[in-house]
Amino acid sequence: MRRRVTDPRRFGRVAVLMGGWSAERQVSLWSGEAVLGALIKRNVEAVGVDATRDNILGLRAAGFERAFVILHGGAGEDGTVQAALELQGLPYTGSGVAGSAVKMNKVTAKRVWLAEKLPTAPFAELRSEADAKAAARKFGYPFVIKPAAEGSSVGVTIVRKPAQVAGAFKLARGDGRAVMGEKFIKGAEMTVPVLDDEALPSIRIVPAGEFYDYHAKYIAEDTQYHCPSGVPAAQEKKLRALALQAFRLVGASGWGRVDFIVDKAGKPWLLELNTVPGMTSHSLVPMAAKAAGMSFDELCWAILETSLGEADAR
Ligand SMILES: Nc1ncnc2c1ncn2[C@@H]1O[C@H](COP(=O)(O)OP(=O)(O)O)[C@@H](O)[C@H]1O
Ligand SMILES: [Mg+2]
Phi/psi of residue 27, each to 5°? Predict the structure, then answer.
């Protein structure tokens, strides 16, 4: 990984945007505190900012020169915050407005991947309970009902029998979210982080419970993570190439994480792309970075560098 900046002053005053008002607020605060600590340790003039609808538009006026976006889900990951930063002419880390918006809706991202024949499970948009029942007939059991634009496994159900359909739809719907149904892919959960147009080592996730739900992600101590993932070298190469391709196709940039399920036959199915993945000390991107020889602090620095334009690259 090529480092472009050595003097922390080159970044100027950096707002580490965390918290926010999405369902993933708490996770973002955890990530944000970890990132802030790392940047400060490296003498970057970084300040934590709990993002609100009001303060997000006043960052330039408040003296900030750059933003490290570590807001998960909602406005921080769907292009809204990115647009607010663009309006102020503030450079920021990670994906821009368009890439964020395309990937935020899983249905849209899957359509882009399918257009280029990338492997992703068959799906359907569910506008009503009747649609959900139709999806059950189409995909059979088990199948998945989930919000199209949520994160952290919020509202996701593996539907195993007809009696669960209505409840799963209602849970995914919440107060009006877009909902999708998806064929259930049985296999190993794998993820590949992307940093500065390179894929990092893959990680294999083994949740102790039924699937990789909120509890397995943030609370359980018995979720297993393997990195290096232990897949054969050829498979590793294939996964990394696919991750990079999926990342570029939706127009994502800077950094992110591409999630897959790899079936018994070894075929990887794209699940989703995260443009602002978790950055707590227990998160997956730091784990892969470590396997690639990069400390958490170095990783935060490298992500901050993704906010530099080509003109800054000297
Ligand atoms: N089609 C599917 N087949 C098998 N498991 C799935 C499928 N969709 C989701 N899951 C399970 O649910 C978890 C969360 O789903 P995901 O689409 O990644 O939503 P989120 O954005 O909330 O993480 C996945 O990590 C996986 O364990
Ligand atoms: Mg996921």
Answer: -65, -40
- The gap between the terminal CA atoms of the chain, to the nearest Å, is 16
Do 230 and 84 have their domain in common?
no
Domain that holds residue 12: 8-93+295-313
Nearest one of 305, 311, 314 to 66, comparing CA atoms: 305
Would you please indicate which residues are annotated as catalytic (active-site) residues? 24, 152, 218, 257, 259, 272, 274, 278
204 and 224 both lie in a single domain: yes
**pLDDT, tens digit, for every residue of 153-162?**
889 999 999 9
Please compute the mean of the pLDDT values over residues 87-97 and round it to a whole number. 97
Q: Which residues, other chains included, contact 231 with Cβ-Cβ below 8 Å and sequence gap of 6+?
A: 190, 202, 204, 239, 262
271 Cα to the center of ligand 2, angstroms = 7
Q: For residue 155, which atom of ligand 1 is closest to its CA?
A: 22
Query: What's the CATH number where 80 sits?
Result: 3.40.50.20
Tell me the whole-structure pTM to 2 decimals: 0.94
Q: What CATH number has the domain bearing residue 237? A: 3.30.470.20
